[in-house]
């Protein structure tokens, strides 16, 4: 809920900054005052408009920056899972070894009992070790360089 409120404030402050910057006069606009385009038609007076607009821009810029920091903090710390200690991580790794299996490797199924008349059972096939398959084809090992020969004397 707080994240939604902060996002709304972020959008409002950014739009306010854009509007206030577009309303302000540039530095070159003051040169026209010397030729008769003075401040007679302004609402805030000769210097009031620039001061009020620049002060409002500074306030909204400060709100925007603080809000950005709060949203960043909430994004990195708000939805994170509870921290795990090293002991918790080790406990998870050893639980797979306690069962005698490795993660991702399924044990071989047990061989069915034979119903022969001799009563001897056949041994179960040895489980096949599942090595991770690589996508690259197997390459032969590089050959050793020939042994250096001593120079003739």
Overview of the structural elements:
This protein is mostly helical and 153 residues long. It has a domain at 2-26 and 43-77. The protein contains 3 helices and no strands. Helix 1 packs antiparallel against helix 2. It is elongated and about 105 Å long. The mean pLDDT is 73.
Amount of beta strand: under 5%
- Per the principal axes of the C-alpha atoms, what is the gross shape? elongated
Largest sheet: none
CA-CA gap between termini: 89 Å
| Average predicted confidence as pLDDT | 73
- Helix/sheet category: mainly alpha
Order of helices and strands: HHH
Determine the number of helices (DSSP H or I, runs of at least 4 residues).
3
Write down how many β-strands occur, each being a DSSP E stretch of 2 or more residues.
Answer: 0
Oligomer: single chain
**Radius of gyration from the alpha-carbon trace, in angstroms:** 39 Å
Unreliable stretches, pLDDT < 50, 5 or more residues? none
Estimate percent helicity: 40-55%
Short description:
It is built from three helices and no strands. It has 153 residues and is mainly alpha-helical. 2% of the residues are buried.
Fill in the keyword field for this structure.
single chain; 153 residues; mainly alpha; 0% strand
Helix and strand arrangement:
Blueprint: H1 2-23, H2 48-77, H3 86-98
Helix pairs in contact: 1-2
């Amino acid at each position: 809920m707080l994240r939604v409120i902060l996002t709304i404030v972020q959008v409002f402050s950014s739009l306010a900054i854009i509007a206030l910057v577009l309303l302000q006069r540039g530095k070159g606009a003051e040169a026209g005052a010397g030729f008769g385009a003075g401040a007679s038609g302004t609402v805030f007076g000769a210097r009031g408009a620039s001061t009020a607009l620049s002060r409002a821009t500074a306030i909204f810029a400060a709100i925007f920056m603080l809000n950005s920091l709060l949203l960043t903090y909430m994004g990195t710390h708000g939805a994170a899972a509870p921290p795990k200690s090293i002991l918790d991580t080790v406990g998870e790794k050893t639980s797979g070894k306690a069962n005698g299996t490795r993660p991702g490797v399924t044990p071989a199924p047990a061989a069915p009992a034979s119903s022969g008349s001799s009563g001897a059972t056949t041994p179960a096939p040895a489980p096949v070790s599942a090595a991770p398959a690589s996508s690259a084809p197997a390459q032969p090992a590089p050959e050793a360089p020939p042994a250096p020969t001593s120079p003739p004397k």
